[in-house]
C-alpha cells in the first residue's frame, strides 16, 4: 500500500511532540483504531472493506512500534485507506458534479493542534496535506504570515506546491469504480431530463434510487440503477435491481494513542457523489468530523461518518468527546450521542434539513484509574446498516476487525471494549504505584464498563475477526450481549478487564 | 448603504420560519446587536467604525419592524458592514497574498440551520450567499442532491451563478484603503528580500512591525511601515512610525432576536492580510465564529472576532454559547470564556501555534424568567485594545454604540446589559402570567446580573453613545463599575432592570 506517487513530504518538518502522562513515561503501549465508514456494506464486499482496515492498522502499528507518534499513526492509517480504491477518500473518491475528486481531511493532536483541507483537488493523500498544515501551524509562513489551520480548494493546491507536497492530476485519482458510479449517475441525470421533457415527474419515479446521490452513508446501491434496459423503453417506474451491491462511499477515520501517551485523530473523505463543487463536508471540520480533548489524566477522541449536512450544527465529534470524556458509562453515552446529540437535534423546530440523517461514531478514551494504571476504552455506535472497524494494540499479533451490523428498526448498535494497562515507571521512581486489591478495582470497572464474560459468537465468519472484548448492545431493551443474528462476530481474544491484565506491562 | 451591484437574490426563496416562544406570541419586541471587530481602533477613526455599526443597526431594525426575521436582520446588518470600506469584509476586505479578496461568512438560526462560504472570491456580500445556502438547505439541489451547508472557493462562485446570485469582479471589491495596505505589505516583502540578499536577518529587524501581517485583530499600524525612507538607505532597525493609525481588519458579526422569538447570528470577514489563498478563518466556521443554541425557554448566540488560527481547536463560539446558556452570571462566564476556554487552551502541552492569541466575544441570551416575562441579556468581552459594538431594540429611537477600550495589562474587558421584556399573550390566553411582587423579582435579577445603579461616565464623548445599562468590568480585582479611564462611555439611557421595565410591552 505504498503511495503510488511521491513520498511523505520532507520529514524534517515534523516535530515529534512527546509528552509523558502523569509522571509515567514510556509505557510502551500503543494502539490504533480505524473505521472505513458507516453505511451499508454488502456481505460480498465486506472483506474488501475489512482488509483495508486491517492494512491500515498494520501500517500504523509498524510506525508506532518504531517510535512513531499517534499523529504519525493516524496519518499512515488513513493514507492506506486513501490509497485503497474501495474507500471513498484519496484515490477512488467519489467524483463531484463536474467529475473532479475533491478531498476533505482533518487531523488533530493531543495539544489542540489541527490541520485541515477542504474541497481540495489533485491531492492523493489529503490527510498528509492536513498533517503538514498541522505541523506548519507552529511555524510562521514565509514573511511571518500566521500559518493557516484550514486551507481549501485551489488555494490548498497552491499551498501544497509551495511546500513541495505532491500534486497529482485529477485523472490519476479517479478509480475505475468511481468512474463507473459517476457514469451511472450521469445517465440517471440524462434519464431525468428525458422524463422531464416527456412531462412525467422524474423525481417520483426515481424516489427509490436517487436519494443515494445525496445521502452519503446510506446504502449505495451501485447496481441499483433506475435506468431502463434501453433508452427506448421508458417505464413509468424504472426496474430497480434489488441486489444490494454496496459501495459505502463515506468518510474514513482513525484514532491512535502512542507510547508517549499522546492521542491523535483524523478523518478523510471524498464527500458525497455528484456533490456541489466546493462543498465541504464534516471530514474537513474540526469539531464536526474529528476532535480530540486531552488533559493528561484523561483524554478522549472521536471521529464520525455519516450524512455531513446533518452534522454541522451539532458539532457532533466535539459533543461526543465531551460526553465520553465525562461519562462513567461509555456505551450509554454513545447511545445518547446518537439518539440525543445527533438525531435529537435534527429538524428541531422547523429546521428541516433535506435528507435522512445517519451516523457512525468511533471514540477512544484513556484515563488514569489508579497509580500507574491507565484504562483505555474503545466505543462505537451507528444507526446505519453497518459500520466497518478495526483495532490493533502493540500487544496484538494481528489487527482485529469487525463489520458491525444492525437491521432491525429503529437501527442502533453500540459496542466497545476496554483494557487496563500497567504503565512503566521511569521518570518518577519515587512515586510507586500502590498495590491495590485486585478484586476491588475489578468490581469498580465491572460496574463502569458493562463487563461481561468473554463471549463467543454462535455464527462465526472465519474471515472476520472480532474486536477484542467487544460488547455489542444493539439497542435499548435488547439483550446486552451480542445479538446472534445481525451483529458482530466476536473473537476469542478478549480485551476485558481480568486479573491477568493487572500485571500487564506489554 | 445600498448594495452597489444587484439586489438581494430572489426573495421567493426565503422561507420565513416563525415560532412562538413558550406559548407567548408576537411579543412585538425585537433587537439587533452588531460588532465591527476587536483589535485596535485609533481614536481618530473611532467614529467611522461606530458609524458603520450604527448604520447596520438601523437597517436591520427597519427590517425587524417591517416583520422581518432575525435571519433577515443579521443578513442586512452584515450587508451594511460589508458594503462599508472601513470594515474588513465584503467591499474593502484585506487582499490575500495574490491580491484577491477571499471572503468567509456564516449564518445560523434558531433551528440549527446553517449556511457558510469560505475563501470565496468575487462576492460582495458573502453573508447573503451564506444565507442563501442556509435557506436552500431545506430543499434538495437539482437532481435531488443533498444541499450543501458550506461551500468554498471557486465552487461557491459557481454555486452563486447557478442560483443567479450576483457575482462581481475582484477589482470591484478592492477598496482604495485595502489596495494601499496591500501595496505597503508588498513593499515590506521587497524590503525583506533586499535585506536577505544583503545577508541581514530581515525577520529580526522587522519584528516590531511584521507580525501585523498575521495577527488579524492586533493593532494594524497602517502607517507603521518598516520601510526605510528610501531604498538606498537600509538601516539595521527600520524607523517605525509610532503613530497608531489603525485599521482594525477583522471579522464583523451580528446577533438578532425577532418578534417571533427566533434568534440568528452571523459573521463575515475578509480574513488576515496577505493570507494564504484558500485559507478559511473562523467567520466561515459554525461553532468557531458563529453559534446559536435555542431550546425555546432559553436561547443564546455568540459571534467572535480575533486571531482565527487560535480559535479552531477551542470551538470558541459554541463553547461561549454553552457557558452563557448555563450561567447565572454572564459577566463571570464571559471572563471564563476568554481566560479559560480561549487563552487557557492556547499552547497547552507543547502546542505552540504561531502568533499571539487575541479575541473579542459578543453574546446574547434570552430566557423566560417568569410567566410572560423574558429576560434578554447582552454580554461582551475582549482582550484586545478595543472592540466596536452597537445595539438597537425596537423601543430605541436610535442605535447605541460603544467603543470598549482597555489598555492596562493583562488586557481584559467585559461588559453587558439586560432587559426584562413583558411578552404579549395571544395564543394561550388561559395561561395568564402570575402577577409577582416586583421587589422580589428585582432582587433576584439584581443578584444574578450585577445590576448597578445607572452610571454616567466622567469623560463623555458626544460622538459615542453608550450601550444601554452597560456594565464594564475591566478585569478581576478591579472596580466592577466602569473604569473612568480607558473604558466605555455610558449613555443616559439605561437598560437595567427597574420597576419601569416591569410594565414594558414595547
UniProtKB/TrEMBL annotation, chains A, B:
Residues 196-236, 393-506 are annotated as: Disordered. Residues 488-506 have a biased composition (Acidic residues). Gene3D superfamilies: (Glycosyl)asparaginase. GO terms for biological process: protein maturation. Coiled coil: none annotated. Residues 437-450 have a biased composition (Basic residues). One of its GO terms (molecular function) is threonine-type endopeptidase activity. One of its GO terms (cellular component) is cytoplasm. Residues 218-234 have a biased composition (Polar residues). Residues 196-206, 427-436 have a biased composition (Basic and acidic residues). The record marks 250-251 as: Cleavage. The active site is at residue 251. InterPro entries: Ntn_hydrolases_N, Peptidase_T2, Taspase1. This is N-terminal nucleophile aminohydrolase. It comes from Orbilia blumenaviensis.
Amino acid at each position: 500500500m505504498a503511495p503510488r506517487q511521491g513520498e511523505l513530504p520532507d520529514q524534517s518538518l515534523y516535530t515529534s511532540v512527546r509528552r509523558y502522562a502523569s509522571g509515567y513515561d514510556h509505557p510502551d503501549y500503543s494502539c490504533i483504531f480505524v473505521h472505513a465508514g458507516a453505511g451499508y456494506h454488502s456481505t460480498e464486499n465486506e472483506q474488501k472493506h475489512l482488509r483495508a482496515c486491517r492494512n491500515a492498522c498494520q501500517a500504523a502499528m509498524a510506525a508506532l512500534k518504531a517510535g512513531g507518534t499517534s499523529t504519525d499513526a493516524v496519518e499512515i492509517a488513513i493514507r492506506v485507506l486513501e490509497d485503497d480504491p474501495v474507500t471513498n477518500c484519496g484515490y477512488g473518491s467519489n467524483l463531484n458534479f463536474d467529475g473532479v475528486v475533491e478531498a476533505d481531511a482533518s487531523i488533530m493532536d493531543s495539544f489542540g493542534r489541527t490541520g485541515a483541507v477542504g474541497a481540495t483537488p489533485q491531492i492523493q493523500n489529503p490527510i498528509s496535506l492536513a498533517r503538514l498544515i498541522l505541523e506548519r501551524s507552529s511555524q510562521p509562513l514565509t514573511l511571518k504570515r500566521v500559518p493557516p489551520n484550514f486551507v481549501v480548494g485551489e488555494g490548498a493546491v497552491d499551498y501544497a506546491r509551495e511546500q513541495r507536497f505532491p500534486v497529482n492530476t485529477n485523472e490519476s485519482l479517479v478509480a475505475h469504480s468511481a468512474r463507473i458510479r459517476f457514469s451511472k449517475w450521469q445517465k440517471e441525470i440524462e434519464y431525468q431530463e428525458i422524463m422531464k421533457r416527456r412531462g412525467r415527474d422524474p423525481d417520483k419515479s426515481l424516489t427509490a434510487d436517487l436519494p443515494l446521490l445525496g445521502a452519503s452513508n446510506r446504502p449505495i446501491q451501485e447496481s441499483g440503477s433506475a435506468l431502463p434496459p434501453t433508452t427506448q423503453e421508458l417505464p413509468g417506474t424504472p426496474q430497480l435491481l434489488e441486489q444490494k451491491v454496496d459501495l459505502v462511499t463515506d468518510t474514513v477515520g482513525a484514532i491512535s494513542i502512542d507510547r508517549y501517551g499522546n492521542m491523535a485523530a483524523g478523518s478523510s473523505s471524498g464527500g458525497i457523489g455528484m456533490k456541489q463543487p466546493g462543498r465541504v463536508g464534516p471530514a474537513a471540520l474540526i469539531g464536526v468530523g474529528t476532535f480530540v480533548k486531552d488533559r493528561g489524566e484523561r483524554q478522549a477522541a472521536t471521529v464520525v461518518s455519516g450524512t455531513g449536512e446533518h452534522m454541522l450544527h451539532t458539532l457532533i465529534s466535539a459533543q461526543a468527546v465531551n460526553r465520553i470524556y465525562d461519562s462513567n458509562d461509555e456505551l450509554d453515552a454513545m447511545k445518547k450521542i446518537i439518539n440525543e446529540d445527533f438525531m435529537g437535534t435534527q429538524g428541531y423546530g422547523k429546521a428541516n434539513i433535506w435528507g435522512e440523517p445517519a451516523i457512525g461514531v468511533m471514540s477512544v478514551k484513556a484515563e488514569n484509574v489508579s497509580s500507574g494504571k491507565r484504562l483505555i476504552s474503545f466505543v462505537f455506535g451507528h444507526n446505519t446498516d453497518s459500520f466497518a472497524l478495526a483495532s490493533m494494540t502493540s500487544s496484538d499479533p494481528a489487527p482485529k476487525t469487525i463489520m458491525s451490523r444492525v437491521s432491525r428498526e429503529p437501527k442502533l448498535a453500540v459496542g466497545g471494549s476496554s483494557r487496563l494497562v500497567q504503565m512503566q515507571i521511569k521518570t518518577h521512581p519515587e512515586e510507586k504505584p500502590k498495590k491495590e486489591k485486585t478484586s476491588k478495582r475489578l468490581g469498580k470497572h465491572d460496574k463502569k464498563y458493562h463487563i461481561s464474560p468473554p463471549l463467543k459468537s454462535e455464527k462465526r465468519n472465519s474471515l472476520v475477526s472480532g474486536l477484542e472484548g467487544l460488547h455489542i448492545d444493539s439497542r435499548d431493551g435488547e439483550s446486552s450481549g451480542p445479538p446472534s443474528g445481525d451483529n458482530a462476530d466476536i473473537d476469542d481474544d478478549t480485551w476485558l478487564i481480568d486479573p491477568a491484565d493487572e500485571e500487564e506491562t506489554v
